[in-house]
Each structure stands twice: as C-alpha cells, then as structure tokens.
Amino acid sequence: MNIVGHRYLYFGISLLLIVPGLIGLVLWGLPLAIDFTGGGYAELRFENGRIPPLEEVRALYAEFGVEDASPRTGGAGELLVRSGHLDGETNDLIVAALQERFGDDVTLLRFDSVGPTIGREVTGRAVWAIVAASLGIMLYIWYAFRGVSNAHRYGVSAILAMLHDLAVIFGMQAILSHYFGWEVDALFLTAVLTVAAFSVHDSIVVFDRIRENAARARRKTPYEETVNNSIVQTLARSINTQLTVFLTLLALVIWGGSTLRHFVVILMIGVLSGTYSSIFNAAPILVVWENEEWKTWFRRRGNAHAR
C-alpha cells in the first residue's frame, strides 16, 4: 500500500471532512449549555407521550417569574426547557403545575442550575485545559524523540493531526447542534480532550515505528519509503484497537440512554477521525516537511507567473 505516495489525496479528503463543519460553525455557531453560560435546564417526560404546546409551557413558566424559558421537544414524550437562573424549589412547583394543568404524570429526568459566575469560570478553564493539553503533548513527544534528528517535527505533526480531529469534532458538533439541538456542555469538553489523547497516542505508535525503521534502514533508502513501510506495519494494530473502542461506544449509543448519547456520538466521531489522521495525515506531514515540498510548489507558482 503506497499511502504516503497518495498523501495529497488524503489531505484533500481531510478538507472534505472539515470544510462542511467549518461552514456550519460560521452559519450556526455552537450553542453553549448552562455549564458555560449559567442558567437552568430541565428535562421532563410526559408519560402519555403527548407534549403540550410550547407556547403554553412558556406561559406557565412566566407565571412563576421565569420570563426567558425556552422549551423544545426532545425524544418521545420529552420536553427540554432552558431558562435563566432557576432554583430547585421553583422548578418543583413548575413540574407540579404542569401535571395539574395538562392532566398527565410528569417525570423530572434531569435538573441543573448554574450561576453566571461559575459559567464564566468553567469557560476559562476549558480553554486553558485544551491549551495545556496541546503544550504537554508537544513537550512529551519532543522528549520521547530527543534522540532523533528534527525531533520537533514529530511533535508538530502530531499536533496538526490532533487539530484536524478537533476541527472535525467542532464542525460535526455545529451540524448536530443545528439539527438535533445538542449543546456544548462539560461532557463535550471531556470528549474533546479524550479524542485529543487518542489521536496523539495513535500517531506516536506510528512515529515510534518510523524511528525504529529509520535507524535500521540502509543509507540510500528514501525517507518516504521508510515512513510508508512504518505506516503499513502499524496499520492493522491501529485499526483493530480503534475498532474495538468504536464497537464499545456503538453499544453505548444503542443501549446507554439519551443522557450519554451526545457524549458518546462525539467520541465515536473523534475515534474515526483520529484513526484516519494518524494513518493518512500525521506521518505524511513528516514526509512533506522532510522534502520541503512547499518550496517546489512556490517555485512552480513563480515560474507560472513568469511565463
């Protein structure tokens, strides 16, 4: 398999994966959950499956002084209500009023209330967590490959592959938020950091094989050939490991319930993207860097303008 020889094809496929998500980010953005903005959030289930008109639900919340309630339908018989600050006592009164007014048993599946100060604090820590993880990964790879010439290239290539996966995740989140109403919450951040670790871990496995093969390779063996052989040798291991994780996550999506579904789906997307990037992006980036192929591209562009 000549994976490295077709690297620009795989780079193009990566763009096809990322661009729709970036367009979704620009058009729809990312709706933040109360973990980051503060406010109240309630998940209610109407046992008969008939959800009352949303305008009537909004009016009932207003009767209890909650003027900014935003109800929307969820799964079968489920009502999701986002509002400003709402305490648990008021929420219990509202649930009882819903039962009395609409003549149905209402089950409170989940209720969260976060103050605006805590929301801002969580947002700041989330950003710093992603930055700290990236720097830590970079330093670790630099140290692990300290005996290899241009060790920093391995770290930068792994980070670029990780950024590829994060771009895929955030783009898919924008699309899922638009069509399914899924918000960015603390579990989403957990999924992002987990996927980052998975992505870099798989890239390091390939890089380590490149280091071993480069040390044993004959002097005239092209670097591109060494990298490609290393990818092929670790291909089965990468696919088998990630497939095991993917099947486990798939079982959670099917039988794990609606509360975890958003988190698990993001993990599944990240695992697929991380497997792809570690095989088709991370190591080929090393080859592009080793060959300094951007110089050839700029030279061709210059010659074309000269004509």
Describe the structure.
This protein is an alpha+beta fold and 307 residues long. It contains ten helices and four strands. It folds into two domains: 4-33 and 118-295, Multidrug efflux transporter AcrB transmembrane fold, CATH 1.20.1640; 39-113, Alpha-Beta Plaits, CATH 3.30.70.3400. A hairpin with a 4-residue loop joins strand 2 (70-73) and strand 3. The longest helix is centred in the last third of the chain and has 34 residues, at 258-291. The radius of gyration is 25 Å and the shape is elongated. The model has no long low-confidence stretch (mean pLDDT 85).
Characterize this entry briefly.
This protein is an alpha+beta fold and 307 residues long. Helices cover 72% and strands 9% of the residues.
- Mass-distribution shape: elongated
Give the C-alpha Rg.
Answer: 25 Å
Average pLDDT, all residues: 85
Number of individual domains: 2
Q: How many helices in DSSP terms?
A: 10
Write the layout of secondary structure elements.
Blueprint: H1 7-28, H2 34-37, E1 39-46, H3 54-63, E2 70-73, E3 78-83, H4 88-102, E4 106-114, H5 116-144, H6 151-180, H7 186-216, H8 223-255, H9 258-291, H10 293-306
Antiparallel strand pairs: 1-3, 1-4, 2-3
Helix pairs in contact: 1-6, 1-9, 5-6, 5-7, 6-7, 6-9, 7-8, 7-9, 8-9
